[in-house]
Fold this protein.
Amino acid sequence: MARYTGPRARISRRFNEPILGENKALQKKNYAPGMHGRGKKRKQSEYAIQLAEKQKAKYIYGLLERQFAKLFDTASRKSGVTGELLLQLLEARLDNTVYRLGIAPTRRAARQLVSHCHITVNGEIVNVPSYTLRPGDAVGVRERSKSLEVITNSLSVQGAKKYNWLEWNVQEMEGKIINLPPRQDIPENINEQLIVELYSK
């Protein structure tokens, strides 16, 4: 499936945030990439600000334009606050949930674990990273994969991460979706209202 494979440092420097994980380049060069990166910043238009926010969300969750637009369309058809519903749909993706549970150190690694059939949903192997989870679904590690170094290392480092909408069983190496997360429980620095305004044009 298509995904961004370009330079990660460039993306982090563009938004001045570690969008795709910790990046040493951001610490060394805390200005925008390119030959004019250090120059005086131009005043951005309203459209440019909205577009940048959408691009940031896409990079954070590892989606390309068509997937992201489809998720927004789904969110806009539901009753409720569109921006919050969009973020909930992004958080409910299988690859993101694997990352949130601490099974993988990054979303990219989570995507690979799912694609390589290491992850189960309700006891069945699912190899689709974009699979949408629902409250009550159980996400676990396949029996044969529980000793994988990348998984054990990630759980030992990230196991302390707790989210109110997720439950983790250490012995079974299985997590459960209690409910879709409210906006205050989603830690990403995204202004979803700007994305809604962009798609509403």
Q: What stands out?
A: The first strand starts at residue 119 and ends at 121. The chain has a mean pLDDT of 87.
